[in-house]
Amino acid sequence: MTTQVQSARPTWSRWAGLAAAALAWLALYRVNAPFWDWLIYGVFGLSPDSALGSSLHFFGYDLVKIGLLLVGIIFVVTVLRSFMSIERTRALLGGKREGAGNVMAAGLGVITPFCSCSAVPAFIGFVAAGVPIGVTMSFLIASPLVNEIAIGLLLGMFGIGPTLLYVAAGLTIATVAGWTLGRLHAERWVEPFVFETRLRGQVIDSSAGLTWDDRITMGREEVVTILRKIWPYLLVGIGVGAVIHGWVPTDFFATYASAENPLGVIVAVGMGIPLYSNAAGVMPLVQSLYGAGLPMGTLLAFMMSVVALSLPEMILLRRVLKPQLIATFIAVVATGIVAVGYSFNLLLA
Fold first, then answer.
1. Dist CA 5 CA 247 (whole Å)
2. Tens-digit pLDDT profile for residues 250-286
3. Which residue in 128, 139, 154, 280 could disulfide with 105, CB within 3.0 to 4.6 Å?
């Protein structure tokens, strides 16, 4: 049973509280990195170069960062979603325009500075607003895969050629993979709660007539609901990433993903999936592996697998996607990344 809920307009104290919460969010986000630097490297006395120090810092910093991003993004997306007409959104991005929608979503992903895990709440908001699952998947893939920080770093380290290839490959993978998943009618593999919009515990069937007080309440309730559902997955996902982060086997990469190994690209992708980082965070490792002689196509495939197919992201996505969609998502994206790796090795040989 669904119902439309009305309430009074928000008071000035409500707006003041919202402003105070936003300022607190910004303050916590700004002090997150300095706090963990002080705690892990200062109070505990661990070295940033040690496996333990690096892992503990990674866990604490990313747990707070992703938690804050989840809170902020879920709230903002939910409030914005309350203004959207599901029918209009579907008409704009669905049907015959789905291919164009994939391109638009991939382009939007490029300009949003999300890592793979923090892109999840935006993904939930798009699906709940009626955006086709394939189009939303294009955003989910492109957001961590191609971003301005990685573009700037690649440009400085490797020049314009590899940078343009990286951008073109990332957009192509995001667009084609999203379109492919859309053709498979993957909506049936999304958990039902993602499609529900609730206000004060009741499912509502229309955003028409909602007051600002209703919209703010919806945002707050959505934050609590989603965090309650995904926090165990968030802890496990970041914990796995932190353990692996401190013990990255650089020598193993250089040995088994070298140019002499015909399966080097596949090995690099397979080793990249368990790791967790954004494109900027993995760049130092990419640079060191490049110095060790790994081909550019193999390095790009490795970097793409780290940022677009991380194990922590898959653990987090499991709360909103069924195993069939996660497996299909991994298979489609991994196939595209492997193809890009081998193609670039041939082009740049």
1. 52
2. 666 667 777 778 888 898 888 777 766 666 566 666 7
3. 139
